[in-house]
Amino acid sequence: ETANYFWAKNYAAGLGLTYFEPLNLIADDAVTPRSVRSDNGTVKPVSFLGIILIYGWLAKTFGPWIIIYLTPLFAVIGIFCFYGITRRVFNDKIALLSALMLFALVPYWYYAARSMFHNVLFIDLLLIGIYFLIDGTRIEQMKRIKTDFIFIFLSGIFFGLAIMTRASELIWLAPVMLITWLAVWRFPKPLRGFGNLKDCFLKLFIFAFGLILALLPMFYYNQVLYGGWFKFGYNRPAAVEAQSKIAVNNVNAENINGIASSPRSAVDLLAMTKRFMPAQINIKQAGKSFINYYAIMFWHLFWPAFFGGIWLLYNWKKIDNPQKLYLVVFIISSMILGLYYGSWKIQDNPNPASFTIGNSYTRYFLPMYIMSLPLAALLIIKLSSLLSFPRKRESRVNYNEIPAFAGMTVLIVIFLILNFQAAVWGKEEGLLTMKNNLVKDAELVESMFSHIEPEAIIISERFDKFLWPKYKVIIGNLSDKSHPQAYAELAEQGIPLYYYGFIFPPGDFAYLNSRKLAEVNLELEIIKLDEESRIGLYKLQVTSNK
User: Fold this and answer.
1) Residues 316 and 278 occupy one common structural domain
2) More confident residue, 347 or 522
3) Exposure b/e, 78-104, CB count within 10 A at least 16 = b
4) Smallest Cα–Cα separation from 184: which of 196, 169, 173?
5) Both 456 and 532 in a single domain?
6) pTM for the full predicted model
7) Handedness of CA 529, 428, 468, 113 (dihedral sign)
8) What is the bridge-based pairing of β-strands 457-460 and 472-475?
9) Which among 73, 326, 474, 541 is most buried, taking Cβ atoms within 10 Å?
């Protein structure tokens, strides 16, 4: 989050997407925070560049103040587009309920509030693109302007921007786009709506042109930063979301992170897809992830959507072709998302037994959650309709709909309450808890600043977002094998070097000074300890007996 904001703000100010850190020439490129990499001293983003370029361009136009508000703004636009899409596929009532449920959906607003993650922006750009695509098959002419071709072009633009924001989502988006295109040929109207064969291929060309045009900035900066159009800054395929893995105090970062010692080389998008191979799929882990982060955590969405899907399958011969396509796309997307992301073993929370909304699975599964909403809305409407009773002929008022409407209202209100409660007051990582923790951590870090020289480098494993870019940082926990020599080289140059993190137990502190750090002629000195939070500030000094 901090890195994306930093680069977007830099881009808006015309400072580009790199800066030079001379200390990395002697520190083996170690002086970087998370989500940033250094190649021979040139520091650059480790991220899909979409959010940086889009928000940076908008900030260049409106000012940097707008950056933190853009994701919530796009989230609101996404809801309206979702309503329009669902209205075309199902009906007005399902569309209204689905949009209302999306308005309260926990992971959607949780990550919209944490505004510098890619996921919500990707979803919203995709929803806008789909909305324009659908309208491109509906609105043929307006004031003698072929608006269908304009909308198709805009659809390609927004699809391209979505891919630029999270190219890894092509793992499920590409098959879905192919299936949808094939369905256009297989199904009769009203699904087709692309006109004759000539218009159909013309619209496909216009869509592809818009998509490629939107991707050109990504191709350019990938070439400039990483040496190839389809190369990205991640260290290796398994590191696509490496920043989500955190090491717990006194545990070797090599064992938990799994990427700390990997060579720093750009990753080709084609190579990243190799992760989606049978040898990489862990069915058991994927099943656990799906159950914990969907069926259990969001049971109030899962079960209504499940039985709504069952109803569609049961009535398969009666439902419209767009609804059939929607269900097929939903099932295929969910399977790919569940197997691909679910197979990863991700632990953002230091407590491995804790399943909370802040874990990355909830944002990876976001497309699946959102596509579930119309199915859940369908079930709510069907259940509510059971409460209606036959209308009396002599009655002018349709009283038979009142019980159904009341039942539907009660179910929706329950859904909204459960979501707001989880998003705002959720245990450990609800927005209110997160805000209080951030304020507390920021105050603690601020209290340490008086002990740290402006030119100092701070080693930290989890708190770099509070330190950088005010201070230069190195990601580490002093127990890993990656950077001890770099620490020694920096200390020899007279650069103040600190460690900020969890307090070391006496035995570990003694071990570091007698063995680990002693091997590179360094020793650890206690500067300040906060026993309440178990956070300490230490200074690394060159030993006198070198």
Assistant:
1) yes
2) 522
3) bbebbbbbbbbbbeeebbebbbbbbbb
4) 196
5) yes
6) 0.84
7) negative
8) parallel
9) 474
- DSSP output for 456-484: -EEEESS-HHHHTTTSEEEE--SSSSSSH
Residues 6+ apart with CB under 8 A from 170: 163, 269, 273
Asked if residues 114 and 397 have their Cβ atoms less than 8 Å apart, the reply is no
Q: Is the predicted pLDDT of residue 541 greater than 70, yes or no? A: yes
Rounded to 5 degrees, what angle do the CA atoms 477, 479, 481 make? 105
Report the pLDDT averaged over residues 334-340.
93
pLDDT, one tens digit per residue, over 138-176 is: 544 455 456 678 889 999 999 999 999 999 999 999 999
* Same structural domain, 153 and 184: yes
C-alpha 269/C-alpha 231 separation (Å) is 6
Strand ranges for 329-464 from DSSP E? 457-460
Q: Does 393 map to a domain? A: no
Which of 297, 292, 243, 238 has its CA nearest to residue 267?
238
190 preceded by a cis bond (ω within 30 of 0) = yes
Structural domain range at position 490: 2-46+435-542
**177 and 42 housed in the same domain:** no
Contact criterion met (CB below 8 Å) for 358 and 428: yes
Rg of the chain taking only CA atoms, in angstroms = 26
Q: Is the pLDDT of residue 262 over 50?
A: no
Would you list the DSSP string of 155-166?
Answer: HHHHHHHHHHH-
Residues 38 and 88 grouped into a single domain: no
In a domain, 430, yes or no: no
Contact by Cβ (8 Å): 52, 4: yes
- Counting the structural domains of the chain, the total is 2
Nearest to 71 by CA among 33, 133, 120, 11: 120
Cβ-count burial 359-394 (b if 16+ within 10 Å, e if not)? bbbbbbbbbbbbbbbbbbbbbbbebbeeebeeeeee
Q: Rounded distance, CA 308 to CA 305, Å?
A: 5
Higher pLDDT, 188 or 497: 497
- Same domain membership, residue 449 and residue 310: no
What residues contact 217, with CB distance under 8 A and at least 6 apart?
49, 53, 164
Do 127 and 76 contact (CB within 8 A), yes or no? no
For residue 476, what are its two tokens? 């580490």
In eight-state DSSP terms, residue 142 is B
First CA to last CA distance, the chain: 41
Q: CA-CA distance, 6 to 467, in Å (whole number)?
A: 13
Angle (CA) 206-171-304 rounded to 5° is 100
Same domain, residue pair 163 and 209: yes
Within 10 Å of residue 220's Cβ, how many Cβ atoms? 13
Per-residue DSSP letter, 278: G
Q: Is residue 395 part of a domain?
A: no
Does residue 246 belong to any structural domain of this protein?
A: yes
The residues that bridge with 145 in the sheet, in sequence order, are 142
Task: At 179, list the tokens.
Answer: 């299936």
User: In this structure, what token pair is assigned to residue 280?
Assistant: 């990489």
What per-residue confidence (pLDDT) applies to 401?
Answer: 65
